[in-house]
């Protein structure tokens, strides 16, 4: 296991390298630069600013400089938020996004798995259709519609919850967490349902039934575990995505997470900031995929990584 | 088929749900203030003031920086006007009044200004604000190495241009500290609006010692030393900026607000919702599409006032179809119905305009083109005549690209303008929505643009802030206008000392600009926001400067008091 | 499609194809028993017909404002069945025109991703070994990149043409497909009939095209029905950012975004496009689930 883990982590290095290189050159393709503004800067000042941030150098040289910088875990100054470094901004925003995303993830699991399993047990019956239809609302109504609806209902009309703004308090976090969780609930319910149906038809469950095992035991001790495997592999990338924030939720609820930086960073040509969050996302993806494999091995004894590549 | 009705029912519920919410909007009752009572110095009596003087202001997007010399954009300027104070400052109505300088002398030729700083002027750490602070700060502004976005504001000062260009060291700037409290500025040309420039954050002093100690981190909470009515208490990026009253401020006694909390918003609807929920006293803007709702439910909070800016479109004069084609530019200008645009599209009382410089300047009157007084039918008839003269017709219509940057308002106006051109002239317009930086680059390069969205909010209270944009050498002259006569006029204006002659020269310059139809003016901007009725002390002004130090909160009126009854009768 | 040889092995394949066809016929029958999927299929067909012919039946144009009736509720009197938007444009026509764009965009991007994904996955899986390893490492690298960042940059670069953008979106959305296809190919390539074809001297390309790809049909159909709604949602997200389709054209995403901002003042401008969008996404998702159930051989007893 240890050997496998080390091997996996080592193999992440070239992946990350590829990602950084690709993203670095991709963002530079976009026309315009970080210091463009409607008030045109005098050319001398623009030249000075570019020199200050080494933007006047040849691109390959900038790339090498950047690689050397991040090798020391220094993501550089933000080109847009001039008073902060990218490390500052991520340090301020990441806890917010992690908290929101983590809660949404838990909520989605807590609701998605049971209703998915329940729908599977009632396959093609009214209950199945109803549950899955309701879950499907989560993926059929864009979150930028869902969020204002929730605000209008719970904040403006009923006055139960704040209309936005951020604090680590349940009332401020409730609506954004629900908005984030809704589509995930739908996906998780769907995956659970599909996997559960498959498991319930498999030979070992039929054998167990034939042996006269109580339905409850079959369900919880035998069926649920393998049915969760596809959910787990969905969770890897999904967790990385939800923990790095959502630009829609952050914008509509005024939440200072890091999700907006993927979009705002690109639009402002804040090269360093956008690279910072892209790298963070990449690291999380790799990390979570690795965790998924470990959990897989733990849940499914048939998989042994020491002998085979996943 | 059991499923179909279920699906439909579900959709009905989902869709019907929002509808019922919509038809009965909870009419929000705004808190009502007690009657304002003033003492003999015009200050509110303590008995009418709310116990807690914490003002919550929506403030547009997150400021890029709180360094007054590097900042640009309205949101950061709003905060900086609270944190710092220039030599002059503004009264609630926008008048320029003494700030860090108690008074000043202007030499007879208008070229030398001597400012006498207030001896009681203090930084937020208690140190005195000195003339040397201003000298050091202004040198920093013009030093190209500091990258001051608005360094241009100090261009009238002797040698500023040479220093920008790197041909002279910053020490050569025409500023001197005659004594710790007298600061002298020498100008190249008499600049009648110079005192107005001094309210701009770029001219504010910064605290040298903390800048040298902390570098670019000097504006963080705990590090920032400022000389204004407030000091920085806390800054949570993209969440809130909190200011507290600066006890060392020279006029701390007259500042009523104890704290000011400024919230950045990336979405105007969010800000609007927060105001409705009672979280804000003051918003940065109002979503355009909420006009009807506001009219019905919140007229008392809606404040709309003319602003010192014009929304216009600009023609690229260096490419076909507009190059050397004055009749075509005129035709497009005459074909649009500005009344419809302002009444049905923008809807907040924007003022239709046929010229460039917004009204409201105390010493300037724009030349009004003849067609401003025509009926729309007359304008359209003339537009059609000119369109044909330019060589187009229904059979050979003009195809033109109209460019704008991503924004709900720009989108609506562009769609409406294109529809009007089509309707009146048969022009085929391709609308091109570009992301902001792509748009700016395309505009500046002028290689693909034809007609594009433009607009300008004056940087200082003078017509020149608009006219200078069209100098052939100006960095934002994206129309590519190059008229030697116009350039010469601008140079004359800069050197002119006699106000009436200067005024005439500026009017002549604007007249030429309009006659050449470089731009297609649409409307005069209005500032629009929601303000809690309890918040007082501010006033409308065309620069839209609203310093928190003038503001205060009135006590909320007891709903059971008889006042309200008489009010409602 | 130049056929070179039709030897015994290809005939063997033909018999397999007959078997394959009957497999799809079985699946089709299973699908017809799934009421949700059948309903979804009907809804989608109606939707397609409606967005194609609907705008032709209306008196209104999708781009000309009716200044007499801007932002008016649905009414038979004015002739605006779904009301008008803030500029007085007829929402019935705009909703249908928007549907054309949304569906088209979903289809284009999905097809592009399909083509790239299948070719890439099949090649990687078929060649195997070091090439496969390298190719999949490349996929991993791109997979670790946030999709939205990708889309935004492409949006900024290709901002002027919505179809270019969706070709681009398709061009980065192929990763899942590539992985699935590679897996399937790996498991298929050692099967007897492939071995047989190889022994007969068929080229690798020929084998991929004739033997591997047809076997992937089931996976592909499911993938397509589940990817189209995802792409439609991506487009709506871009519209939320204001980077979507160019005026005067529109899409459901753009309409829903405009509507969401006028939730209280003009609910109809959200209601109709949102219902169309939701119904379509619903239908695609149910159809996809139904197809997966129907095509999954494990389902058969």
TrEMBL record, chain A:
GO terms for biological process: transmembrane transport. CDD domains: TM_PBP2 (cd06261). Keywords: Cell membrane, Membrane, Transmembrane, Transmembrane helix, Transport. It is a multi-pass membrane protein. Gene3D superfamilies: MetI-like (1.10.3720.10). This is Oligopeptide ABC transporter permease OppB. InterPro entries: MetI-like, MetI-like_sf. Belongs to the binding-protein-dependent transport system permease family. It is found in: Cell membrane. The lineage of its organism: Bacteria, Pseudomonadati, Pseudomonadota, Gammaproteobacteria, Chromatiales. It comes from the Bacteria. GO terms for cellular component: plasma membrane. SUPFAM superfamilies: MetI-like. The chain crosses the membrane at residues 98-121, 133-161, 173-192, 231-253, 273-299. Residues 94-296 form the ABC transmembrane type-1 domain. Its main location: membrane.
From TrEMBL, chain B:
Residues 96-474 form the Solute-binding protein family domain. Gene3D superfamilies: Dipeptide-binding Protein, Domain 1, Dipeptide-binding Protein, Domain 3, Periplasmic binding protein-like II. Its main location: other. GO terms for biological process: peptide transport. GO terms for cellular component: ATP-binding cassette (ABC) transporter complex; outer membrane-bounded periplasmic space. It holds the Pfam family SBP_bac_5. It is found in: Cell envelope. PROSITE patterns: PROKAR_LIPOPROTEIN (PS51257). GO terms for molecular function: peptide transmembrane transporter activity. It comes from the Bacteria. Keywords: Signal, Transport. PANTHER family: PERIPLASMIC BINDING COMPONENT OF ABC TRANSPORTER (PTHR30290), PERIPLASMIC OLIGOPEPTIDE-BINDING PROTEIN-RELATED (PTHR30290:SF10). Belongs to the bacterial solute-binding protein 5 family. This is Peptide ABC transporter substrate-binding protein.
TrEMBL record, chain C:
The chain crosses the membrane at residues 36-57, 101-126, 138-156, 216-245, 265-288. It comes from the Bacteria. It is found in: Cell inner membrane; Cell membrane. InterPro entries: BP-dependent_transpt_permease (IPR050366), MetI-like (IPR000515), MetI-like_sf (IPR035906), OppC_N (IPR025966). Keywords: Cell inner membrane, Cell membrane, Membrane, Peptide transport, Protein transport, Transmembrane, Transmembrane helix, Transport. It is a multi-pass membrane protein. The keyword Transmembrane helix applies. One of its GO terms (cellular component) is plasma membrane. One of its GO terms (biological process) is transmembrane transport. PANTHER family: OLIGOPEPTIDE TRANSPORT SYSTEM PERMEASE PROTEIN APPC, OLIGOPEPTIDE TRANSPORT SYSTEM PERMEASE PROTEIN OPPC. Belongs to the binding-protein-dependent transport system permease family. OppBC subfamily. This is Oligopeptide transport system permease protein OppC.
């Amino acid at each position: 296991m240890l050997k496998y883990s080390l091997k996996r982590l080592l193999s992440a290095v070239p992946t990350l390298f590829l990602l950084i290189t690709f993203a670095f050159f991709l963002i530079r393709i976009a026309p315009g630069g970080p210091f463009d503004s409607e008030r045109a800067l005098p050319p001398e000042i623009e030249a000075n600013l570019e020199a200050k941030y080494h933007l006047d150098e040849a691109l390959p040289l900038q790339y090498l400089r950047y690689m050397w910088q991040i090798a020391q875990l220094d993501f550089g100054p933000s080109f847009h938020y001039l008073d902060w470094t990218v490390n500052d901004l991520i340090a301020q925003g990441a806890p917010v996004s992690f908290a929101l995303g983590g809660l949404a993830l838990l909520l989605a699991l807590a609701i998605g798995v049971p209703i998915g399993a329940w729908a599977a047990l009632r396959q093609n019956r009214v209950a199945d259709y109803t549950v899955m239809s309701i879950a499907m609302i989560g993926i059929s109504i864009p979150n930028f519609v869902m969020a204002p609806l929730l605000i209008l209902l719970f904040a403006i009309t009923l006055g139960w919850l704040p209309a936005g703004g951020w604090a680590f308090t349940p009332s401020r976090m409730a609506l954004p967490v629900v908005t984030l969780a809704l589509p995930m609930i739908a996906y998780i319910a769907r995956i659970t349902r599909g996997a559960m149906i498959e498991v319930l038809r498999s030979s070992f469950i039929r054998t167990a039934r034939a042996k006269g095992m109580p339905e409850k035991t079959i369900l919880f001790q035998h069926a649920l575990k393998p049915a969760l495997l596809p959910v787990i592999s969905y969770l890897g990338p999904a967790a990385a995505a939800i923990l790095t924030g959502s630009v829609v939720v952050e914008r509509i609820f005024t939440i200072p997470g890091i999700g907006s930086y993927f979009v705002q960073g690109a639009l402002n040509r804040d090269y360093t900031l956008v690279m910072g969050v892209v790298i963070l996302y990449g690291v999380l993806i790799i990390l979570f995929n690795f965790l998924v494999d470990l959990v897989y091995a733990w849940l499914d004894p048939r998989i042994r990584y020491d002998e085979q590549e996943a | 088929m059991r499923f179909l009705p279920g699906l439909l029912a579900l959709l009905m519920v989902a869709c019907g749900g929002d509808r019922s919410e919509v038809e009965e909007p909870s009419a929000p009752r705004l808190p009502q203030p007690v009657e304002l009572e003033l003492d003999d110095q015009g200050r509110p009596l303590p008995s009418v003031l709310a116990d807690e003087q914490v003002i919550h202001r929506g403030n547009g997007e997150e400021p890029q920086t709180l360094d007054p010399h590097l900042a640009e954009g309205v949101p950061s300027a709003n905060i900086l006007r609270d944190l710092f104070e220039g030599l002059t400052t503004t009264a609630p109505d926008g008048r320029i009044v003494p700030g860090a300088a108690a008074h000043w002398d202007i030499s007879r030729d208008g070229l030398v200004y001597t400012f006498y700083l207030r001896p009681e002027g203090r930084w937020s750490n208690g140190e005195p604000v000195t003339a040397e602070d201003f000298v050091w700060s202004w040198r920093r502004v013009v030093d190209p190495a500091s990258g001051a976005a608005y360094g241009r504001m100090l261009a009238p000062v002797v040698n500023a241009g040479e220093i920008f260009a790197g041909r002279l060291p910053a020490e050569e700037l025409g500023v001197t500290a005659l004594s710790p409290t007298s600061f002298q500025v020498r100008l190249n040309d008499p600049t009648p609006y110079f005192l107005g420039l001094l309210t701009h954050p770029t001219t504010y002093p910064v605290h040298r010692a903390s800048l040298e100690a902390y570098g670019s981190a000097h504006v963080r909470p705990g590090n920032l030393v400022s000389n204004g009515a407030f000091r920085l208490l806390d800054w949570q990026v993209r969440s809130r900026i909190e200011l507290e009253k600066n006890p060392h401020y020279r006029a701390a006694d007259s500042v009523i607000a104890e704290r000011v909390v400024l919230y950045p918003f990336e979405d105007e609807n969010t800000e609007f919702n927060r105001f409705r929920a009672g979280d804000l006293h003051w918003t940065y803007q109002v979503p355009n599409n909420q006009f009807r709702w506001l009219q019905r439910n919140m007229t008392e909070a809606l404040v709309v006032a003319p602003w010192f800016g014009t929304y216009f479109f600009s023609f690229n004069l260096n490419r076909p179809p507009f190059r050397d084609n004055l009749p075509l530019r005129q035709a497009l200008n005459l074909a649009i119905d500005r009344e419809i645009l302002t009444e049905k599209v923008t809807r907040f009382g924007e003022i239709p305009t046929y010229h460039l410089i917004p009204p409201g300047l105390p010493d300037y009157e724009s030349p009004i083109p003849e067609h401003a007084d025509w009926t729309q039918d007359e304008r359209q008839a003339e537009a059609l005549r000119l369109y044909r003269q330019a060589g187009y017709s229904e059979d050979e219509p003009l195809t033109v690209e109209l460019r704008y940057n991503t924004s709900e308002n720009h989108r609506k106006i562009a769609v409406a303008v294109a529809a009007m051109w089509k309707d009146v002239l048969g022009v085929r317009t391709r609308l091109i929505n570009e992301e902001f930086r792509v748009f700016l680059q395309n505009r500046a390069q002028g290689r693909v643009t034809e007609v594009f969205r433009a607009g300008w909010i004056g940087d200082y209270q003078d017509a020149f802030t608009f006219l200078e944009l069209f100098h052939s050498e100006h960095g934002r002259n994206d129309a590519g206008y190059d008229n030697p006569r116009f350039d010469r006029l601008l140079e004359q204006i800069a050197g002119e000392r006699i106000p009436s002659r200067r005024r005439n020269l500026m009017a002549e310059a604007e007249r030429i600009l309009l006659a050449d139809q470089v731009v297609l003016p649409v409307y005069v901007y209005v500032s629009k926001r929601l303000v809690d009725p309890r918040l007082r002390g501010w006033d409308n002004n065309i620069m839209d400067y609203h310093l928190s130090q003038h503001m205060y909160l009135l006590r909320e009126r007891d709903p059971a008091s008889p006042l309200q009854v008489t009010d409602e009768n | 499609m130049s056929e070179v040889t039709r030897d015994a092995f290809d005939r063997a394949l033909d018999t397999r194809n007959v078997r394959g066809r009957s497999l799809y016929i079985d699946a089709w029958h299973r699908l017809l028993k799934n009421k949700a999927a059948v309903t979804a299929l009907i809804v989608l067909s109606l939707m397609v017909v409606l967005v194609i012919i609907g705008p032709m039946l209306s008196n209104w144009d999708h781009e000309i404002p009716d200044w007499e009736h801007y932002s008016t509720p649905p009414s038979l009197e004015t002739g605006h069945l779904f009301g008008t938007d803030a500029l007085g444009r007829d929402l019935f026509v705009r909703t249908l025109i928007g549907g054309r764009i949304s569906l088209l965009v979903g289809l284009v991007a999905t097809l592009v991703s399909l083509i790239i994904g299948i070719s890439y996955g099949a090649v990687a899986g078929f060649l195997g070994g070091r090439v496969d390893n390298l190719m999949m490492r490349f996929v991993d690298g791109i997979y670790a990149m946030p999709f939205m960042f990708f889309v935004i940059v492409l949006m900024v670069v290709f901002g002027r043409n919505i179809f270019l953008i969706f070709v681009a979106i398709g061009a980065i959305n192929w990763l899942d497909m590539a992985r699935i296809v590679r897996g399937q190919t790996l498991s298929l390539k050692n099967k007897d009939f492939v071995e047989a074809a190889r022994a007969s001297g068929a080229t690798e390309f020929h084998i991929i095209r004739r033997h591997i790809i047809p076997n992937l049909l089931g996976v592909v159909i499911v993938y397509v029905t589940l990817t189209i709604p995802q792409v439609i949602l991506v487009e709506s997200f871009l519209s939320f950012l204001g980077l979507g389709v160019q005026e005067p054209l529109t899409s459901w995403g753009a309409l829903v975004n405009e509507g969401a901002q006028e939730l209280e003042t003009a609910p109809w401008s959200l209601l109709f496009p949102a219902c169309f969008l939701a119904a379509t996404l619903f239908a695609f998702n149910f159809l996809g689930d139904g197809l997966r159930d129907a095509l999954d051989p494990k389902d058969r007893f």
